[in-house]
Amino acid sequence: MTYHRYQHPLIEEALCEFGSKPARERDATLGEKLGTDLQMAFAAEPLEDGMPHPAEDMIREALQLADQWDVLNSLRAVVLDSDSSSFAASVLRCLGRQPFPGVPSWRADFVQSALASNSLELRDAAAQAAEQWGDSAMREVLEGHSEPVRWLRDYILEVIQDISHRQA
After folding, report:
1. Residues 99 and 124: beta-carbon distance below 8 Å
2. What are phi and psi of 72, to 5 degrees?
3. What are phi and psi of 136, to 5 degrees?
4. Between 104-115 and 120-133, two packed helices, what is the crossing angle to 10 degrees?
5. Most confident of 5-14, 33-42, 146-155
6. I want to staple 37 with a disulfide (CB 3.0 to 4.6 A). Which of 10, 17, 106, 118 is the partner?
7. Containing H/E element for 96?
8. Mean of the pLDDT values across residues 95-103?
9. Quick check: 89 and 122 in contact, CB under 8 A?
10. How far apart are CA 64 and CA 41, in angstroms?
11. How confident is the model at residue 29 (pLDDT cuts 50, 70, 90)?
12. Which helix (H) or strand (E) holds 104?
C-alpha cells in the first residue's frame, strides 16, 4: 500500500484545518490524526527491519505538506507520550529513515529523550535513528548515554564507532 501526495485523507484533513487554528491547537489536531493514521498503518502491516513501510511515506508526505516543525513536534509527542512502546518505536524507526528531519539539535534532543525511556524497544529505536542520521550530534548523544542492557550498549558503541569513521 503506497500513499501519494494529497491522497492520505487524515493528513489532508488536518492540513486543511491548519489555517484557522492557533499553533497549539494545530499541533494537537495534526498529532492526533497523524498518530491515528500511523497506528492504522502499523496494525495493517507491522514494521520489519530493512523493509520499506507505508508509514514512511505518510511521515514524508506530512513533512512536505505541512509546516515541518508542526509535524516534527507532533511526531515527537506521538513517540514520547505513547502508551505503546512498540508503536512509539515503530514511529521513531520510520522517522529515522527520513533524511535529516529538522536540525541537528532537534534530532539530538529527540534521540536523547527517547534514550531516557524505560522502554528497551524505544531506546533501541533511538539508537537506530541515531545510526541513520549519523551526524556528530548523534555521536555526542550516544556517548553521553549510559545503557544498562548489554546487547544495546554494544550496539550503541558500534554506532558511535561507525559515526566516528564516517566523519574521519
Report:
1. no
2. -65, -40
3. -65, -30
4. 160
5. 146-155
6. 10
7. helix 85-96
8. 95
9. yes
10. 19
11. low
12. helix 104-115
User: How far, in Å, CA of 54 to CA of 57, rounded?
Assistant: 5
The tens digit of pLDDT for each residue in 130-160 reads: 999 999 999 999 999 999 999 999 999 999 9
Residue 21 has pLDDT above 60, yes or no: no
At 156, which helix (H) or strand (E)? helix 150-167
With both helix axes pointing from N to C terminus, report the angle between 136-144 and 150-167 in degrees, rounded to the nearest 10.
150
The three cell numbers locating residue 35: 498518530
What is the tens place of the pLDDT at every residue in 58-80?
999 999 888 889 999 999 999 99
Residue type for position 121: E
Separation of alpha carbons 148 and 13, rounded Å: 43
